[in-house]
Amino acid sequence: MDTSISRSAEDTRGLGREWAVSATAGWVIALTGDLGSGKTELVKGFAAGLGVSARVHSPTYALIHEHQGTRLTLHHLDLYRLETAEAILRAGLEEYLVQPAGVSIVEWAERWFDAAPGCLQLPGRLRRVWFETIGPFERRIRYEDIGP
After folding, report:
1. 19-58 confidence digits (pLDDT tens)
2. Phi and psi (nearest 5°) for 22?
3. Which residues touch 21 (CB under 8 Å, ≥6 apart)?
4. What is the pLDDT of residues 108-138, one digit of tens each?
5. DSSP letters along 3-44, please?
6. Nearest Cα to Cα of residue 76 among 108, 121, 51
7. What residues does each domain of the chain span?
């Protein structure tokens, strides 16, 4: 497991930009952290790294925003309002969580990936990311890659 310390929103966006450089289709990045911990800032940086020019914000009420980058499509999901794996399946989001056509970044990912461990199909390439607030502006961002 790798760890980064972010001391600002710009640091967090920079980490997202770094990750976008090596992004490939089918990658799912699963974000877990409290409200205000930096999940959306990481997505903003990732989107910028993909060449997305549109405004990026959390799709809490829409559930998903799709952004076309210069290289790949970014599927930005927010599962905050969906409390169970069954609700996620009913919403038709499984295709974005298992084998997306572009890259999927999922906020509140524990609602899917921790719902029933071992029972749900996981994506081929998954990065689990945990955000921890350690100070007013500091965040510990731990991440682990699962799969090829």
Report:
1. 999 999 999 999 999 999 999 999 999 999 999 999 999 8
2. -100, 10
3. 49
4. 998 887 765 555 666 678 999 999 999 999 9
5. EEEESSHHHHHHHHHHHHHT--TTEEEEEE--TTSSHHHHHH
6. 108
7. 12-87+99-115+126-131+141-146
Tell how strand 27-32 and strand 139-146 pair up. unpaired
Nearest CA among 102, 118, 26 for reference residue 67: 102
Distance (Å, whole) CA 15 – CA 110: 21
Q: What is the DSSP letter of 147?
A: -
Which SS3 state, helix, strand or coil, does residue 122 take?
A: coil
CB burial of 132-146 (b: ≥16 within 10 Å; e: otherwise) equals eeeeeeebbbebeee
Find out whether 141 and 9 touch, Cβ atoms under 8 Å. Answer: no
- CATH annotation of 12-87+99-115+126-131+141-146: 3.40.50.300
CA distance 134 to 109: 21
The predicted-structure confidence for 75-96, as pLDDT tens digits, reads as follows 999 999 988 878 888 888 888 8
